[in-house]
């Protein structure tokens, strides 16, 4: 069975890597065009494109799939595998050959662009991966296979890697069921659908009127990609790691504790310790090292 793979992100690359390492026959890859990246705005290919080129897989970069259907129909493939592609696929593509999608949530929960971040933000204890038939409506297709995954304090990138690896393994299983004719399709219960939207930089601001668990979950979900930060009067401090220390310290809400050894801030009903952070003009350091170099912020109020 020959596969056409569509994906653009790190998640996609991990899924593709899993398929490739398990000798799945990948006819070609479709990914997003190169985009400006970094301070120099240099055109940079997607991680999927980089992996495909390094492994001699044919690559197409289509900004809009609907404009390239004639080219796609010339590709020799049996099933399309989609994983975090970043485009709505046209009905013509869906009608042409079976397309399945690797989605990192337990659908119909968390349809949309940010299922992994949403699971962490909401403090879910269990998430998972769904392999489904691609439908016109976003993430609403029939479920083919679904597996749960128990969260254990992972930050976004670690959880993304674990779910993508699981998704790759599940895709191989589904492809075998398609090939032997045993595949089954289960319609989703649309009444239970939970939609999630894109996350922007403003979502990374830490709000100390929230509980310690909520703040820590926000850091776990957003610090590595979107970025998390707290604001003092004249400072923006980026936060990379944090932990709940409510049982250890009692601090006034929004107040930085008078303690030269630990960067602790009071929140709603508890306290959070900043484990690693960075000032705009500095480098990433431990919370303790930051406090050692910035004793002036002790006792200040976080905005």
Give me some keywords for this one:
single chain; 303 residues; alpha/beta; Rossmann fold; Methionyl-tRNA Fmet Formyltransferase, Chain A, domain 2; seven-stranded mixed beta sheet; five-stranded antiparallel beta sheet; 8 helices; 26% strand
Structure description:
The chain is an alpha/beta fold and 303 residues long. It folds into two domains: 2-196, Rossmann fold (3-Layer(aba) Sandwich); 201-297, Roll (Methionyl-tRNA Fmet Formyltransferase, Chain A, domain 2), CATH 3.10.25. It is built from eight helices and 16 strands. It has helices at residues 10-21, 47-54, 69-72, 91-96, 115-121, 156-180, 212-222, 287-293, and strands spanning 2-7, 25-31, 35-37, 42-44, 59-61, 79-83, 99-103, 111-112, 126-133, 143-150, 195-196, 228-231, 236-244, 264-267, 270-278, 285-286. The strands form four sheets. Strands 5-2-1-6-7-9-10 form a seven-stranded mixed sheet. Strands 12, 13, 14, 15 and 16 form a five-stranded antiparallel sheet that branches. A two-stranded antiparallel sheet has the order 3-4. Helix 1 (10-21) packs parallel to helix 2 (47-54) and helix 1 crosses helix 6 (156-180). The chain is elongated and about 65 Å long. It starts with a strand and ends in a 10-residue tail after the last helix.
């Amino acid at each position: 069975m020959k596969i056409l793979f569509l994906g653009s992100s790190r998640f996609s690359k991990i899924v593709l890597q899993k398929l490739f390492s398990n000798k799945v026959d990948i006819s070609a890859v479709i990914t997003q065009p190169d985009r400006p990246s970094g301070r120099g705005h240099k055109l940079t290919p997607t991680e999927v494109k980089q992996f495909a080129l390094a492994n001699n897989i044919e690559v197409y970069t289509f900004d809009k799939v609907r404009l390239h259907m004639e080219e796609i129909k010339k590709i020799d493939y049996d099933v399309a595998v989609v994983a975090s592609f970043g485009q709505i696929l046209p009905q013509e593509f869906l009608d042409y050959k079976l397309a399945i999608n690797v989605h990192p949530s337990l659908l119909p929960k968390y349809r949309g662009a940010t299922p992994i971040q949403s699971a962490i933000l909401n403090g879910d204890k269990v998430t998972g991966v769904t392999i489904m038939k691609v439908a016109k409506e976003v993430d609403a297709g029939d479920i083919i296979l679904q597996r749960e995954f128990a969260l254990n304090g992972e930050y976004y990138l670690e959880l993304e890697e674990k779910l993508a690896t699981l998704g790759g393994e599940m895709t191989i299983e589904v492809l075998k069921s398609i090939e032997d004719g045993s595949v089954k399709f289960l319609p989703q219960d649309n009444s239970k659908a939970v939609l999630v939207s894109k996350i922007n930089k403003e979502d990374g601001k830490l709000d100390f009127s929230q509980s310690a668990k909520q703040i820590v979950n926000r850091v776990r979900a957003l610090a590595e990609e979107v970025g998390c930060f707290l604001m003092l009067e004249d400072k923006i401090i980026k936060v990379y790691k944090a932990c709940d220390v409510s049982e250890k310290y009692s601090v006034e809400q929004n107040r930085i504790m008078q303690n030269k050894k630990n960067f602790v801030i009071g929140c709603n009903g508890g306290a959070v310790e900043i484990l690693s952070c960075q000032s705009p003009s500095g480098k990433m350091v431990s919370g303790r090292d930051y406090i050692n170099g910035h004793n002036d912020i002790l006792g200040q109020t976080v905005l």
